[in-house]
Amino acid sequence: MRDFLLYYGVFAVYYVIAINSLYFIIMLFSFKSIMGILKSSIYSRFQTLSGSEHVPPISILVPAYNEELTIIENVRSLLSLNYPRYEVLVVNDGSKDATLQVMINEFSMVYSEHMPVQPLLHTSKIRGVYHNPAFPNLYLIDKENGGKADSLNAGINLSHYPLIASIDADSLLEKDALIRIAKVYMENPDETVAIGGDIRIANGCKIEDGVVKDIRLPDKFLPMMQSVEYLKAFLGGRIGWSAINGLIIVSGAFGVFRKDYIIKVGGYREGYPGEDMNIIIKLHKYMLENKLPYRVAFCPDAVCWTQAPDTLKILGSQRRRWGRGNLKNMIEYGRHMAFRPKYKLFGMLTLPFNILFETLNPYFRITGLLALIGYTMLDMTNGYVLLIYGLLNVLYGMLLGIGSLLLEEIAFRRYPRFRDIVKMLFYTILMFFGYRQIGVIWRFLGHIEYLRNNNSWGTMTRTSWQTKGSENISSLEARS
Amino acid sequence: MSNLVPVFYEHLSKMEEKQLACGVILAACKTLTKESMELIKQDLGTRSGDGSEIALHYAYDKNKQLFGILLEGQKLSNTHFYALRVKDYLQEHKLLAGSLLIASFPESSRSSGQMLMRMIQEMREPGAHGEIKIYEQNPAQKEEPASILLVNHDETVNEFLSIYFQRKGYLVTVANDGMDGMEKYQAVAPDLVITDLNLPILNGYQLMEKIKHISASMSKIMVLTDKRLEEDVQKSFAMGASDYITKPFSPVELEARVKRLI
């Protein structure tokens, strides 16, 4: 028994070394490509581009469920982006509040009978499309409740342009975010099927008229944690993954996609969370199966500001939802695609990495820790193994965190004040004492939820949407 | 003591006929008696300070409590210099009640009569005690400077253009978004609105629409934007814009176009 615990514990130590080393390699790729990204954006003239005839038009899809408090501000901000030709499609997903009515009132929209909605993708019943000629590039689709993916599909059916951007209704785009992401697309329009934007935490920032006026780090503990966490995930992780075309997710909060391929893979998956990862997996699958050259890109200088949950309860429900979505995707797709040479790097590296180190992460870490604690209880003299396990986790993790901060400081410097840098550094270290551990537990709880609710996704969806609604209320509080 | 206005008016018309320069100093004074007038005359003398031959004329208006000095053949600079002495003297004798106003014909105004009248009008609202104001031709008389309303979300562009146009003599008002632009428009009723199309809250088109709604013919509208799409150009002109300039722009060209419009 003792030996078994020890061996398992040692295995867990190696697991931690492996996971962090892989993260480290990915981060090295980030460092490798960041200079190129930086130079390319310095030498691009975004202002000129943002009025150019040659920029492809984009349809922005904004799924909205119970967003009456924030929708106006967000739509206004979307209507004043620096972009030559685009349209904003707000999809009211059968909201129970007055989302539809506030939109209609604010923008004097009228029901238009002859709006051509192509039945490209199956969606819940569309109740009507609203439009106002004074806002020619704004559309409002009213449909019966069907979830976020369903709303995106409805938006695609009405959209008029070849590119679509999906944006959360509680997020704000920087004015030139869309043109920056479009530049990445224009570098290689044939092969680019999806581009992700950088998501940052808006808590603490001063927001006026839907524009982030003053960039500040959050004051509260949880948003601050998420702030450095997002930096780490987006700068340290996604830049690196995109450099080797192994990106497995484009955040649902802000991403741009080729509409034709979205339609070819059958649109967004209906009914439950994780649709943002799901669409990317399907795109990889489709392109690889059809042997088409493609890339899933990431554009770290296209920034979307999002409101982070600031209570444990809402954060927990968000993380459990992520855990659920991840597990569902891995069971449905990952299993069949992992370790198949046909799927090249995505199948050989990204998916195994995701299954082993993301999906199964909680099990290895928790059991590893328990095994080592058990072992130490049985044999106090060898307690140093537990110490090694702990230190390895913390120190390697810190190295990665500090690496991401370095990326931020080299390339973006959104928080120029010195005390902000110190604060971020402090929280990067603090993250490993409690926050990370509770994150692992939430993911585990998400898996349990998945197993228990396997047959009742509909109700599940509704609860998750509801928590999303309360997120918005809290985000409004943060803004006012 | 005779009334100030007719006496000065007479002198000034004579000087105007002879095409000679003539300085005028007006000072707000406490009540002066005949004796004190004589005393002033004696103390200040009938020559200006540098000893050259200058005829000086003194006058006092009881009703307006204005003390005036006329300096024959003096330009504004000399008048100003002399006014410093007058001010010191009046202050020393505790006679000064307000500010001084100086001018010189023909430097300050082409019509001496008008200049005098305006000066007296201006003295009705005296400035700070002991301040020497220099008469300026009333802005109402000059061609009124054209007013421009700049509506742009980019603060750098707003700042640059407002400084540029102010130095060119325009009255500039700045707004940062469409709603702000609308409010400022109603407040100042400018001759020209230079607006971007891409604005928060109300975009450029809506702003144009509203301006047209308020006053159909009052203001010219010029669009200054990043957007170079044909449909934007076409729509802007259809909505009543008089000109369409795309960024990056040349300020010289912009001003030339502005001049053509107003």
Automatic annotation (TrEMBL), chain A:
InterPro entries to which the protein is assigned, alphabetical: Nucleotide-diphossugar_trans
TM region(s), chain numbering: 6-31, 345-364, 384-412, 424-445
Alphabetized CDD domains for the sequence: CESA_like (cd06423)
Coiled-coil boundaries: none
The entry's keywords: Glycosyltransferase, Membrane, Transferase, Transmembrane, Transmembrane helix
Similarity-based family: Belongs to the glycosyltransferase 2 family.
Protein name stated in the entry: Glycosyltransferase family 2 protein
Source organism per UniProt: Brevibacillus porteri
UniProtKB/TrEMBL annotation, chain B:
Residues with PTM 4-aspartylphosphate: 196
Database matches in Gene3D superfamilies: 3.40.50.2300
Keywords on record: Phosphoprotein
Pfam families: Response_reg
InterPro entries attached to this UniProt entry: Bact_response_regulator, CheY-like_superfamily, Sig_transdc_resp-reg_receiver
Boundaries of every Response regulatory domain copy: 147-262
Keyword Lipid metabolism: no
Entries under SUPFAM superfamilies matching the protein: CheY-like
Top-level taxon of origin: Bacteria
Phosphoprotein listed as a keyword: yes
Protein name per the record: Response regulator
